[in-house]
Amino acid sequence: MNEALAQRISDDLLRPVVTTTWKFWLLVAVLGSIVAMGLGTWFYQMYMGFGLTGINMPVYWAFYITNFVFWIGISHAGTLISAILRLVNAGWRRPVTRCAEVITVFALMIGALFPIIHLGRPWLFFWLVPYPSERLIWPNFRSPLVWDFFAINTYLTGSLLFLLLPMIPDFALVRDKTTGWRKKLYSVLALRWQGTTKQWHRLESAMQIMAIAIIPVAVSVHSIVSFDFSMAVVPLWHSTIFAPYFVTGAIFSGIAALILAMATLRKVLHLEEYLHPVHFQNLGKLLLMMSLLWTYFVFAERLTAWYGNEPSEVEALIVTQSGSFAPLYWTMVVCNFVVPFVILSLRKLRTITGCVIASSTVLVGMWLERFLIVVPSLSHKYLPYTWGHYRPRPVEIIITISTFAAMMLLYTLFAKLVPIISIWELKVGEHPVAAGKAAELREHPLWKANP
Amino acid sequence: MKAVYALYSDPDDVQRAVDGLRKAGIADDDITVISSEPIEEYEFSHRHRATWIHWIAGGGGAIGLALGTWLTSFTERAWPIPTGNMPIVAWWPNLIIMFEMTMLGAILATVITLLITARIPARTPKMYDPEVTDGKILVGVENPNEGSVSAIERALMSPGVARLKTIQL
């Protein structure tokens, strides 16, 4: 490719890594303070006991499990979308993939933290770790919580490797372009990468295999998160469509998170030349499709429950749609269907700003959706004498807010240390297709011998 | 380690240099081409296409499946817990663990194969030039026979060559 163009791409995308402004430190300080506050609150909760939360009979799962499902859903933004776009060789994926893959890794880490927070006594976390023991606590493979352990760890391992492998050539680039401590750091991270034709070929083959493997894993993860609910005989939970319904919701919220992250990076890091409006329009179309699919699942689920007329299910249905949870329910419908549908179905409104507005409402709506799956069913389970109420307490709210700050902080630090757009992949996208080159290649004697 | 290499700007010149080295009697495996991005449009980048990585990934998956099957059924038999009127070895839920272990096996096998076959990280310093980062493409031969150095240099001195270097690491 044109050397001047290669140079410009490298310089543009390395700028955020090598230059640091006071705004960066201010942002890190603000987000770090919120995260520290969340950690302090968590320690306070550990010290004082779980009674500080609003969790009580019969609502034993509330904010923390809502956050767990929400963040695992957000994690579907990255690796799944990136893997699909890699497999279909979509050219517009190149600036998008790394932004997306990072969301997966951090969202999974944050999501996986919530069951531990929810334990109340997190130092007993090792009871969840699969090792045979005479206490007979663990080896129950029929428990969906054990399925979670395997699924989340497989997805986290796969996503981390899927993110890290294509970063090695970019680390080598940073190594060559920097001096001082950065050169030392990136020399280690680059693992003596040279960029031989063999290395490139092996890397691309490995990425193809990983992309094929990671898609079913991603689908399985949110299916298994849905099994945490649907394996229980609780009104509106025990449903056969929960797995695809959860997967759809996860991809839906994941795309929304990706759009927001990309728009922020574009603005803050001045990546206008690399993250074009067409990227947002394409993702906006995907978001619209997922919005319609999500609406279809909600309709199918609600219709079946209503038509079945099973008293406990109908009660949970009524309390959600016209009872005390109705304001949240209809906000969710507006956020997840009305706003995205209006904005994203009209080409004039499907701008970057439009996509950002739709994505913001979708994130709010999807958090509410998770909350409305968890709480109303538990608070109105079967006989009325077991019914109860749930109100979140400050500890739960602060910890929830701090995890959003943690996500932003981790993303900010990552963008500071690693080029947030894969430089080598972007350069490949700029290769001019030489006229007749493919035909010429096919005529080469070695190509004929080893096609 | 000694190396003779040249830097080019145009992949067409790289292809000519690689062909020239072949004519000079240098084996394909001894010719190194280094670039800052994959250049799939040229024959020289397809010299190392043959790989077992797909089969090894499948093998890793099979090992993961076997491990998952053993882990679930062994533990259930060793520590039997009656749960919800389900059999002690319950295959429906076990399938979930077996699936996850299969995919984990395939992923890990892929990554390990990549690291080994692409020699990442290299144990010793290899031929490299930081100008590659700026878009240059390096063609060279590591540890050439003393008798073949001049032939290599002649082959590399095609019209498009930006720089010819001989280095001792």
Name of the CATH class of the largest domain in chain B: Alpha Beta
What is the number of beta strands of chain A? Answer: 0
Bin the strand percentage of chain A: under 5%
Number of helices of chain B: 4
Low-confidence stretches of chain A: none
Rounded Rg of chain B? 25 Å
* CATH-level-4 superfamily name of chain A: Formate dehydrogenase/DMSO reductase domain
CATH class of chain A reads Mainly Alpha
Classify the fold: give the CATH topology of chain A. Formate dehydrogenase/DMSO reductase fold
Mean pLDDT figure of chain A? 89
Assess the beta-strand content of chain B as a share of residues: 5-15%
Largest sheet of chain B: 4 strands, antiparallel
Number of domains of chain B: 2
Output the CATH topology of the largest domain in chain B.
Alpha-Beta Plaits
What spatial form of chain B do the alpha-carbon principal axes imply?
A: rod-shaped
Compressed to H and E, one letter per element, the order of chain A equals HHHHHHHHHHHHHHHHHH
Question: How can the largest sheet of chain A be summarized?
Answer: none
- Classification by helices and strands of chain B: alpha+beta
